[in-house]
Design a protein that fits this description.
There is one protein chain. The chain is built from 13 helices and 22 strands. It is an alpha+beta fold. The strands form six sheets. The protein has a seven-stranded mixed β-sheet. A five-stranded parallel β-sheet has the order 12-2-1-16-22. The radius of gyration is 23 Å and the shape is globular. The structure holds uridine-5'-diphosphate (UDP). The site of uridine-5'-diphosphate has 14 residues, from helix 6 and helix 7.
Amino acid sequence: MRSSDAASYDAIVIGAGISGAVMAERMASQLNWRVLVIDQRSHIGGNCFDELDADGIRIHRYGPHLFHTDREDVWQYLSHFTRWQPYEHRVLSSIDGELVPIPFNLTSIERCFPEEKAQRMISALIARFGEEARVPILELRKEAEPLLAELADFIYQKAFVNYTSKQWGVAPEAISPAVTARVPVVVSRDDRYFTDPWQALPADGYTAMFAAMLNHPAIEVRLSTPMSEMLRFDWESQRIYRREGGEESLFTGKVIYTGMIDQLFAADRGALRYRSLRFSFERKDQPWWQPATTVNYPNDHDYTRITEFRHLMQPEPAAAATTVVYEFPKEFDPAAGDEPYYPVFTEEGQHRFDDYAARAKAMSQLHCLGRLAQYKYFDMDDAVANALEAFTALEAAIRSKSAGGESVPHG
Ligand code: UDP
């Protein structure tokens, strides 16, 4: 990472998470641009940030991040910046005192019902959907056949309703069906949380992978730097000013903004809603705490799940203690210092977002990118793919402009 205080950049990237790091890396390596990346936090990597704790266990400060993708281009791209450690995520859910696989599968049925009934349910499921099918719970709930209806109701009530009302503050029907469809009912004994062909963790952690992406002579990173210290947006004149040493100057390069889009406008048309989480990390004085990386607690406690990081490490750490994190969902409240994690999709929120997005788009040098700026529930691989696509579009626009005789602006 460049540490010079050179006065001009071709692009300024707000946010050193997935979207910002991918764009910065692409712009520096493919366009030879000088890029400044700023982040208000004291570290790179956004919510993927991980670090070793005092016991040498790699923890994810913003909750468990398990990489999985079905996109070969994303896998190939990230593989330039990290080696991988194979890892397939498995989750158990605590239902009626039993720990059963989630996604709810044929083994889960056998653990929750008497043997003879379980077998009839399994036969009915296979007859209706076929082996290997993955059925969203809200779809299964539409089944009229009494045995399937009973099964659907059981899974819905025991695994989804209370978890979802803790996580989102509403019943499963009140959120986008795509959200609960992320965790289907599975007509097989596959107990993996994800089925993507590529599932792995960066061998030296996410932070090291992001450091490798940003480790380019043309990229400068400034941490603990709020955007307002560096930039001012003048929406009336459609101009962006750069702030440096008490001076302001017009900035004509690209600005890649990956923060909350409503913050660009001081939320003047109302704040966009998010769900947040409070993470409670605990060191347990024993080598292992639970039999899987993550155990969900849909029906008991105020937390939704416990994740034990030791399960993610290969080779196993020598520590005699283990670290777990409890996730307590809550409404996002910036005044309380919360982080915005999950967009809450409502019609009103969508209209607000469309309004902010249209105003941002009018400023052609500004690109809003990623989960917070595009108000999307992205998985990590979606965020990478989205940023790669944004770069491809930017590059095409730049090349066609320079083919037309215009020079690339320098700020
Ligand atoms: N969900 C649930 N019970 C579970 C797991 C998930 O009701 O045991 C629902 C819940 O609404 C959750 C959604 O499915 O928000 C998506 O779960 P996922 O594990 O994909 O969420 P993430 O890991 O992104 O928080």
